Amino acid sequence: MSAENDPAQRVAIGISFGNSYSSIGFTTGEGKAEVIANEDGDRQIPSILSYIEGEELHGGQAKSQFVRNAKNTVAYFRDFLGKEFKAIDASPCHESAHPIEKDSTIAFKVKDTAEDKVNEVTVSEITTRHLKRLRNSATYYLGKEVNSAVITVPTNFSDVQKEALNKAAKEAGIEVLQFINEPVAAVLAYDARPEAKLADKIIVVADLGGTRSDVAVVASRGGIYTILAALHDYEVTGLKLDQVLIDYFAKEFLKKHKSAGDPREDARGLAKLKLECESVKKALSIGTSANFSVESLVGGIDYTATINRTRYDLLGGKLFSAFSRLVLHAVEKAQLDPLDVTEVILAGGNAHTPKVASTITNAFPETTTVLAPSTTPTAINPSELPVRGAAIQASLIQEFELGDIEQSTHPMVTVTPHLSHAVGVLCISGDESTGVFHAIVDAETPLPVRRTAIIATPREGGDVLIKLAEGARHIKITKPEPKPKKEKAEDDEDDDDSDDDDSEEDEEEIREKTWKINNVLSEAAIRGVKKGGKVEVQINIGADLGVNAIYREVGGKGGVRGIIAGGKAANGSA
Amino acid sequence: MASVQINLPLPVLPAGWTAEKDFKPIGHLSHATDRNIEPVGPHFLAHARRKRHKRTFSEDDRIQAQANVKKIEDDDEGEISEPEDPLMLQREAKDWKGQDHYAVLGITRYRWRATEDQIKRAHRKKVLKHHPDKKAAKGGTEDDQFFKCIQKATEVLLDPVKRRQFDSVDEAADVEPPSKSETKKGNFYKLWGKVFEAEGRFSNKQPVPKLGNEKSSQEDVENFYNFWYNFDSWRTFEYLDEDVPDDNENRDQKRHVERKNQNARRKKKTEDTARLRKLVDDCLALDERIKIFRQQANAQKNKRRLEKEAEQKRLAEEAAMAKEEEAKLQAEKEAAEKAERAEGKKAKEAAKNAAKKNKRVIRGAAKDANYFHGAGDAPAAQIDSALNDVDAIIAKLDNEEIAAITAKLNGAKGTDAIKQVFQDEVKRLIGAGKLKDGELKSLS
Ligand SMILES: Nc1ncnc2c1ncn2[C@@H]1O[C@H](COP(=O)(O)OP(=O)(O)OP(=O)(O)O)[C@@H](O)[C@H]1O
Ligand SMILES: [Mg+2]
C-alpha cells in the first residue's frame, strides 16, 4: 500500500493483457522498451491458468493442459471482466472451462485446490491470479519487486470493465497507473523509436488477435493522438484461422484413415489439432511450408503431414479479405478515404502472416505504408506492440502522483476542439479557381496549435500575396480513357493473349487527393521579396478558433502580422 | 514539429492590392469538433501541463467536458432489438432454406439495406444470447438448433453471392404496388416511390433514380422511366432450386434435376422481367406528370403553331404594305418626272421664245446702230456683213449670254453705245477663244 503513495518507490512495468496472450515489458535506463520473457522463455504468454492436483500452471504450460485437463483449464477470459453473463460471448471457451453466471458476475468451475472439490472461481479472481504470475515473472527478471503498471485495453473496454480490471490488479499487488488503448500503445511503440520523426499522419492500427479483431483510425498531430473511429469484429479471428487449418488437416487425415473417425469429434483429438494447427500457422509466417505432426491424433494413430503457405493463403482467403474489408470500413467510418491513410500498423499475432499484410497492402494505395514483418523489414514485432507502448507510457508517468495522473487524464484535459478542415495557403495564383491549395495545418489537429511553413516565391521575387484559406480534401476520380479497340485482323500476334484485353477493359480509375477551397480566411502582402527569397508563415490557432498569423521574408526585416477573430468559440472553453 | 516546406511559389501580389498594415481578414474558421485526445506519450504530457497550469476545474466543467465529445464506439446496447417469435426459436437448422435470415438476426427493419457491420453486430448479439454453452451453464439443454440457425443466417448474409440469392427471393422486402384507388387519394409518389425503392435493390446500376414528386423536372421523370424500362437486374432464382441429389450413383437423376433447375430459374427470371415491365407500365399510366408534360408539350406545340401563324400573317401584311408603299413611291416618282419633263419643255420653249425675241432685239439693235456704218444709209454690203457678223456672234452665244447681251443692248442708247456693246462682246468672245481676231468684218 505504501508504494501507492510514494512514486519514488515505484517499479513500473507495461502489461498487455489479451484474451489469448499477455506480455510484460519495461523501459531501460536508455529509454528503450524491452519485452520480458517468463521462466519458460515466452514473451507471448498465453493468458491461461490450469489446475492439476492443487498446482497452478500458467501460460504455455497451462495451454498444453487443453489436451488432458481441459475442464480445469481457464482461458479467453479477459473480455468477461466487468460484464454480465448475458452480455458475454462464451464461444472461445467451448473446449475449456465454461463460464457460468455467479452472483451477477462470471465464474469458472474448476478443481483449483488439492481437494477433490469443484470451486466457482470468479473471473476477477482468475485475472488476479494471472496478473500475479505476470508480476512475478517481471519481478524475477528485473530483480526488483514490481508494484505498478500501465495496462493496455481495447478501445471498447467500458469504464466498468476497467474498474473490474483495476480491482483485480490491485489484488495482485499491482497499482494501475493508467489504462491505455491498445492501438494507441502500438502507435506510441513506433513513435518512441529513436529514428522516428515527428510528422502529422493518419494511422490505421489493424489488430488481428486470437478471439477478436480491432481496427482504430488514429490522427497523429505533432505527437498527439486522437482516435477518429474504431471497429471490432469477433468473427474474423486467429481462432477462426486455426479452425481453417483444423478442418484441412482433419479432412486430410480422414482421407488416409477412413475408419479412424474424425479427430474433431474427439475432445482430445480436437485439442491436439488445435494446438498443432496454431503452431503450423505460426511456422507458416516464416517458412513457405510447415510440418504437422501429432502423436496419437485419434484411435492411437500418429499423423504427420505438410502444408505449404500458398495452401494456407487460399484456405484463409475469405477471412483475410473480410479483415481487409473491416479495415476499409473503419476508414470509411472515420469519414476518410484510403488515400488519407499515411500508414497502417498491423498488430496482433496474426499480423505475422504474410498474406494478411499483402491483402491489406492491396487494399490501400501505394502512398500508404503498411508496417508488418513481411512488408517492412524494420517493423516492430506485431505481438509486442501494445506491451512496448505500455512500457514506454509507464516510464513516462511513473514519477507522478496517482492523483496527478487522474487529473491529467480527465476529460477536462483530454477533450479538445479539433480543426474540421485543413488550413493552408494558395500557391501560384491567388484566384480560388486556379490557385493550388497547400495545407499547413491538417484537419483533425487538436487546438491550440502552432505551425510554421517556409514557402517559395516567384522566380523574380517581388511583392507576393499570402492568401490563407480552409481546404476541404476532395478525391478526384479519373476514369481511364477508353482505349481504341485493337484491330485484330491486322494484328494476328495479339490474338493469343486475349485475357490481356480483359485486364485492359476493367482498367482501374485513377483516384487522387486534391483540395477544394472551402473558405478564404485572410490576405496579406509581403513586399519586395528578393530574387530566390522565401517567405515564412507562422500560424497559431487558439482553442477559440482565433488565428494569429505572422508573415515575414526569411532573413528579411520586419514582417506582417494579422489576427482573424475566433468566430464562434468552441464548446466547453468557458 | 518541423516546419512545412512548400515549393510551389506564392502568387504575385495583384496590382492595386492594398490593406491596412498589409493584412486583410476575410473569413472565419469553420466549427471545430470536440474529441478526446489520448492521454498517452510525451507530447500529451506537455499538453496536459499547459492545460492544467494554474487552473482548477470546477465540478461543472468536469461534467460538461465529456458532453459534446464525438463518439468513436458504437454502443451495441443502444439499438432496439426485435422481439423473437417463439415459433422461430424452435426452428431446425436443417430447414435453413425456409428461414427468414433477417428475422433470425433480428434485423427485419433493414433487410437488404443492412450493412455488413449491422449484420455482424446483430449476429454477435444473438450469439451472446443463444450460445449453447450458456444455455447449458444455465441448466438448460444443450439444444443448439437455433444457434445453428443464427450461424447459417450469418453465413448467408455475409457472403455477397449467397446474400443476393436470398435477397432475390426475400418476399418480405417486396413492396406491393398500390391499387388504382389508393393512388387516387393523392399518395401516388409516396406509395409508388416505395415500390421502386424496393425494386431498386436488384439494380446492377447504382444509384437508382428516384420516382421524385410533382416538382420533378421532365428530364428527371424521363430518366426515371428510361432507367426502369432498361432495368439491369441481378435478381436470380437459384435459391428456390430443388436439391440436387448428392450421391454419385444416380448421375442421370442428378443431371435431370440440374436441368430442371436451370429451366425453372430461366422461367422465373423471364416472369420477373415481365412483372417489372408491367409494374412500370402501370405506374407510368397513373403518373399525372406524364399527362401534364404531354399537355404542356401540346400547349407548347399549339403555342408555337399560333405563333408561327401570327408571324406568317404579320409577314404577309408587311409584304403587302411594302408593296403598296413601293407602288405609291413609283407613282409619285413618275408623276414628278412627268411634271418635270413638262416643266422642262415649257422652259425650253420659253427660253427658245426668249432667245428668239432676244435675237430679234440683237439683230434690231444692229439695225438701230445703222449696221455699224456710222452716219448715212449703210450700203447693202455693209448691212450684209453686219448682219452676218451679228449672226456669227449669236451663233457663238448660249441663251443666257444672249439674254445678257440683250439686256445690255436694251440699255444702250445711240449707235455708238450699241456698237460698243457689240464690240465688247466680240472682244470677250475672242478673249474666250470663241472667235478669232479678224473673223468678223464689220465689228473689228
Ligand atoms: N507468428 C505468428 N504467426 C501467425 N499467427 C500468430 C503468430 N503469433 C501469434 N499468432 C496468432 O495471433 C493470435 C494472438 O494474437 P495476440 O497476441 O495479439 O492476442 P490477444 O491480443 O491476446 O488476442 P485476443 O484478445 O484477440 O484474443 C493467435 O491467434 C495466434 O495464433
Ligand atoms: Mg489483442
TrEMBL record, chain A:
Ranges annotated as biased composition (Basic and acidic residues): 475-489
Keyword Cell membrane: no
Keywords tagged on the record: ATP-binding, Nucleotide-binding
This protein's record includes keyword Nucleotide-binding: yes
Region: Disordered, residue numbers: 475-511
Pfam families: HSP70 (PF00012)
Single GO MF annotation: ATP-dependent protein folding chaperone
Acidic residues: bias regions: 490-509
Protein name: HSP70-domain-containing protein
GO CC terms, sorted: cytosol; nucleus
UniProtKB/TrEMBL annotation, chain B:
Molecular function in Gene Ontology: Hsp70 protein binding; ribosome binding
PROSITE patterns in alphabetical order: DNAJ_1 (PS00636), DNAJ_2 (PS50076)
Superkingdom, natural source: Eukaryota
Transcription regulation among keywords: no
Stretches assigned to the J domain: 100-170
Ranges of biased composition (kind: Basic residues): 253-268
SMART domains the UniProt entry points to: DnaJ (SM00271)
Localization (cell): Cytoplasm
Keywords on record: Chaperone, Cytoplasm
One Pfam family in the UniProt entry: DnaJ
Gene Ontology, cellular component aspect: cytosol
Protein name in the entry: DnaJ-domain-containing protein
